[in-house]
Amino acid sequence: MLRVLETANMHRVPSPEMEDFDVGQWHVAVTGEVIVGVAGYRLLDTPDGPVGKTTLLAVDPEARGHGIGQALQELRMELMRDAGAARVITNADRPDTIAWYERHFGYRRIGEVPKLHEFGLPEVDRWTTLEARL
Ligand SMILES: CC(C)(COP(=O)(O)OP(=O)(O)OC[C@H]1O[C@@H](n2cnc3c(N)ncnc32)[C@H](O)[C@@H]1OP(=O)(O)O)[C@@H](O)C(=O)NCCC(=O)NCCS
Q1: Whose CA is nearest to atom 21 of ligand 1?
Q2: Where in the chain does DSSP place strands (E)?
Q3: Are the beta carbons of 105 and 73 closer than 8 angstroms?
Q4: What's the chain's average pLDDT?
Q5: What is residue 102's three-state secondary structure?
Q6: Residues in the ligand 1 pocket, defined by CB under 6 Å
Q7: To test the ligand 1 pocket, which listed residue (97, 101, 105, 123) has its Cβ within 8 A of the most ligand atoms?
Q8: Within the chain, what is the greatest distance between any pair of CA atoms?
Q9: Check whether domain 2-133 has CATH 3.40.50.2000, yes or no
Q10: N or C: which end of the chain has fewer CB within 10 A?
Q11: pLDDT one-digit tens code per residue, 19-61
Q12: Are 29 and 36 in contact (CB under 8 A)?
């Protein structure tokens, strides 16, 4: 998992940006015996009920463009919905990934939050916060 996350500079775990892998549920995509994609999420308790919060998502660059990212994203949206969440929050930094979330999964931008340290794209110092209905 860390090898795949490192391809997107998202492997600094534990760190202030990602304290632990054990904060939620993790799912992997496997080709043969090799992990080529990882996706995680957790559920936040709020007075209005559970809200989904995605943690990390990355696909090995050599495996991108074949629907693995979409399958992982659809899986975690379905699991969050089944757990009772009506919406999901996602932080992203790459403009092409933000557009991908908007294009395929109904996300809209709701704000920005500064990164705590380098994580993801080094030249982008803040996360764009996106929200979608589940
Ligand atoms: C974002 C990310 C996870 C997407 O993973 P992916 O496996 O490439 O995703 P998909 O293959 O489902 O979709 C990518 C594109 O390939 C297209 N595609 C999917 N299956 C395809 C196929 N069989 N043939 C051709 N194209 C295909 C999709 O339509 C999509 O293109 P579009 O958005 O222009 O329509 C990946 O690019 C990544 O790891 N990026 C860096 C890390 C990152 O930004 N993570 C998110 C942080 S919140």
Answers
A1: 66
A2: 25-31, 34-44, 51-59, 87-92, 108-114, 126-133
A3: yes
A4: 96
A5: helix
A6: 8, 57-59, 64-70, 90, 92, 94, 97, 100, 103
A7: 97
A8: 43
A9: no
A10: N
A11: 888 778 899 999 999 999 999 999 999 999 999 999 999 999 9
A12: yes
How many residues does this entry show for the chain?
134
Nearest CA to ligand 1 atom 39: 58
Distance CA 27, CA 29 (A): 7
Backbone angles phi, psi at 54, to 5 degrees: -75, 150
> What are the structure tokens assigned to 100, written together?
């991908």
H/E run at residue 70: helix 68-82
Tally of CB atoms within 10 A around 5: 18
Question: First and final CA of the chain: distance in angstroms?
Answer: 26
pLDDT of residue 36: 98
Pocket test for ligand 1, best of 57, 93, 123 (most atoms within 8 A of CB): 57
For residue 110 the two structure tokens come to 């709701």
Hey, where are the domains in the chain? 2-133
Q: Strand, helix or coil at 120?
A: coil
